[in-house]
Design brief:
The structure is a homodimer. Chain A is α+β, with helices and mostly antiparallel strands and about 240 residues long. Chain A has nine helices and eleven strands. In chain A, helix 6 packs across helix 7. Chain B binds a DNA duplex (30 and 30 nucleotides) through helix 8.
Chain lengths: ~240, ~240
DNA sequence: CGCGCGGTGTGAGGCGCTTCACACTGCGCG
DNA sequence: CGCGCAGTGTGAAGCGCCTCACACCGCGCG
């Protein structure tokens, strides 16, 4: 276990995190005072759905997978949290149980902020509250979109959308032909399809030349193709 | 058109609304200064998905239906907003387009608060911001639950859930055997089922004695029956 | 009155997804 | 090395939901 960094350094670490940009020095010090640095290696659980929500996590480096488990062992991946993002904000705010599982998607370095400290600072730092409001309402936007998607759109359209979303999330978004590192099993689970159906669908697209399939990954060769599918058109 | 109430009265109206309980007099006055009272009759649109989000609505009396339209004319009912609740908060916070349609579900009396006024007050009234945060994160909780429901649960379970939810929403929740006024077509649309499938499903439940079907309505005779279905068990 | 229309009831046919079953590959490990 | 395992590729069978088609009922309206 690494030794904990001293207080001053923890506030400095906080200050570098995108979410805390612009916060006052006082707020940063108060938050840093009780912040705990934590490290996880790939696959380790960070919290589980239903756990008591004790606070907020900020990702310093690495990535975290947020997902919900189904009674029969399936899993829906809600989002991938990357560097400079935060997660665990719902339970932070209402003190209720966590709404999803969080798992380290690779080695990751996090900062944990206690709920009570955070709320205390929030009371005196409206700008932080407003920032958080913007963030939470953005989440709400995305989640609502997901609800629409699930009720209205065809499974294959959802799959195409998921690929585009993953390309955006995995940082390779800017690339001409983004490569997405995910297994077909996981991919299917994020949209509620079986592995087999996912596989057949991907292979069809590969035949169309829009996709390259590798082991544990696939590469989008023709983004416009997927954009069309995602908006409900036939290819 | 009713004449507008004077400023003092509008702040007083605000103060009586559950969401603004505990706000300072100064904040209420500032919000009240630009608040507009608006009235709608049944079926009138309040805003549409994609409209510019200019502000927040508070329901003084009546009810508002929040729904999203699908490209092919279907409709998903997200929530029914009742007295002492607020809606339109997402677009309020990030200034983006409205994420759903809002329609008066009956005659209703609303208060409209401009986005810029609201944000200005928020900056100086952290307690209001915290209240809003709690509210938005609660919405996020519910919406996430809906996402889970849609990906994991069987259509019939969703239908059962929808009936329970509608019973709760239509005010007849307290009744022993709540009657729900909705056509089978609409009901199907709220869970993404065809009218025919909905019909067959309801008839099966009616045979089990759990449900009474009338024209344009149905009555839950056995709530426990639906609660079981909703939690994924076989009847 | 007859007609249209909205809501409901019901069957036939078809398509898509699921489950199950099995095969092939590459790779880590004892 | 051989073994197991994770990931992928594919086919058969089955089931649930959708679409289409049609029938019945009650009601408003010309």
């Amino acid at each position: 276990m690494m030794p904990e960094a001293p207080l001053a350094e923890k506030s400095a670490v906080l200050a570098r995190h995108a979410f805390f940009k612009g916060a006052s020095a006082g707020a940063l010090n108060r938050l840093g005072a009780h912040a705990r640095e934590v490290r996880y290696s790939a696959g380790q659980p960070i919290f589980r759905k239903g756990d008591e929500g004790l606070g907020l996590f900020a990702v310093l480096s690495g990535a975290v997978k947020i997902s919900v488990p189904s009674p029969d062992g399936r899993e829906l991946v809600l989002r991938l949290v990357g560097e400079n993002e935060i997660f665990g904000e719902v339970a932070l705010l209402d003190g209720g149980p966590r709404t999803a599982d969080a798992m380290a998607a690779g080695r990751c370095h996090l900062l944990f902020l206690d709920r009570r400290d955070f709320l205390a600072v929030l009371k005196e730092e409206p700008s932080l509250a407003i920032k958080l409001l913007a963030l939470v309402s953005d989440r709400l936007r995305q989640t609502s979109e997901q609800v629409e998607e699930l009720t209205f759109e065809a499974p294959t359209a959802r799959l195409a959308k998921a690929l585009l979303r993953l390309a955006r999330l995995q940082g390779t978004a800017a690339a001409e032909k983004p490569q997405i590192r995910i297994t077909q099993k996981e991919l299917g689970r994020t949209v509620g399809l079986s592995r087999e159906t996912t596989n057949k669908c991907l292979n069809e697209w590969a035949l169309d030349g829009a996709l390259k399939i590798e082991k544990g990954a696939c590469t989008l060769l023709d983004r416009a193709f997927f954009a069309r599918l995602a908006s409900g058109e036939a290819p």
